[in-house]
Amino acid sequence: MKRPRDASERHMHVEIADTGSGLPILFVPGSFSTPAAWRPIQAQLPQGFRRVSIALCGYGRTEDTRSLHDCGFEHHVLALATAARQIGEPVHLVGHSMGGTVALLALLQGAVEALTLTTFEANIFPILRGTSEQALYDETLAMSTAFEAAYFAGEVDAAGRIIDFWGGDGAFAAMPEPVREYCRQTCLANVLDWRGVHSITARAEDFAQLALPTRLVTGAKAHPVMHALTARLLGAMPHADAAQVNGANHSLITTHPQDCARHLVETLARV
Hints:
Number of helices: 10
Structural class: alpha/beta
Distance between the termini: 30 Å
Order of helices and strands: EEHEHEHEHHHHEHEHH
């Protein structure tokens, strides 16, 4: 994947929520999400931290600079780098789901300077290609391919295929109707997300160069593919540790904010 051009050469409107003061924590939400996703965790944090949250391309008020034929992760990385440049100093970086993938790639490319990294189920699936967990990657690829086909075939609740893959059958139906409607409205952005993530060429061993304190958090009920790729990252990153949140799945930042906040605070304390 190509390194994005310097931010001075490109311009993107990024939704940024900025509250508090102190050491900056930069929060990156996943697909179908906005800065509001982080509020439950942010409410649990102690004073002394500046809380900065963004929305990725195509979500919230962040513009989508992608197309069906140009949807690489450099677009999301630019959104993250734009926020980091606005902060103007090294950050504690936090990402959930696709946001965790963006955070990892931004660090790999040197697009963001971070003091620590905390991920909550960062879904960087391509690092499983060519490994003993190839079948799990193939399962994820098949699911995302079927989701895209359903969307373009006009399936109204195609987004439910994604939500149920992570949260189990019925997870989408159990969501409040305004949330389901937002997923429907941003479904094309998620199609582009999946095309982008499957184009990633980075391997697990590439992340060995990231020497910052890192915690990789998963839900105990996470999909097996999430446990597999987390183990791969854990084995590669020299200063990474891993933790699980009991009773949680992919929606852990919403369902278990106290546990997630504790893991974040423990990571911050490693500096």
